[in-house]
Design goal:
The chain has 191 residues and is mainly beta. It has one domain: Immunoglobulin-like (Sandwich). The protein contains one helix and eight strands. The chain has one helix spanning 7-26; strands at 31-39, 46-54, 57-65, 72-78, 114-120, 126-132, 147-151, 168-177. Strands 1-2-3-6-5-4-7-8 form an eight-stranded antiparallel beta barrel. β1 and β2 form a beta hairpin.
Length: 191
């Protein structure tokens, strides 16, 4: 018996559906990203920032050494994942895909990249931990491939357009990684 539908007509859609199946299976898993942070010219700051996505929120953690003790330093996601300029300016301005003003991380309307300040302890180690609902690891507010910047001064959370946070002392590029491959528990505990 011959069937009126060709093998191509049946196999084509079946292959398409089979290729989409893995996307559906992994959609509910948390996604993760990491940035290795390196000093800009004349600075000593270095560290790591991690980003773990759970639903509509992203847990942001950072630990950076070589910073001035006792300071609060601006911590932002910038438009480009480009740290090639010696002063970090190749990362562009704050990541702001919407027409929102610069503000603190708690503000409803703000640049997506406005994360506030990194708290630096007496040993020059800056730490940050916060869940954020503005950034994402996919879609319009995705931070994948963008830059993370540590500034030389405190972000005042109000001055436009950047919070008057000063020059850039460190820069990193945010890249996607496996959540299971990243052991954030090995990072020093945030107190």
């Amino acid at each position: 018996m011959r069937y009126p539908l060709s093998r191509r007509a049946i196999c084509g859609p079946a292959l398409l559906l089979a290729s989409l199946a893995p996307l559906h299976c992994h959609a509910a898993e948390p996604r993760a990203a990491v940035a290795s942070i390196h000093p800009t010219a004349g600075n000593t700051a270095s560290g790591v920032a991690t980003f773990i996505e759970h639903g509509d929120r992203v847990l942001v953690r950072a630990r950076v050494t070589g910073l001035p003790p006792g300071e609060k330093l601006g911590f932002h996601i910038h438009q480009f994942g480009d740290c090639t300029a010696p002063d970090g300016t190749s990362a562009g301005g704050h990541f702001a895909p919407h027409d929102s003003p610069h503000a603190g991380p708690e503000a409803e309307k703000r640049h997506v990249g406005d994360l506030g300040n990194l708290e630096v302890n007496a040993k020059g180690v800056g730490e940050y931990e916060r869940e954020d609902s503005h950034i994402a690891l996919h879609g319009e507010n995705s931070i994948i491939g963008r830059g993370v910047i540590i500034h030389s001064g405190t972000d005042d959370l109000t001055s436009q357009p950047t919070g008057n946070a000063g020059s850039r002392v460190a820069c990193g590029v945010i890249g996607i990684t496996k959540a299971g491959a990243m052991n954030i528990e090995k990072m020093a505990p945030i107190k």
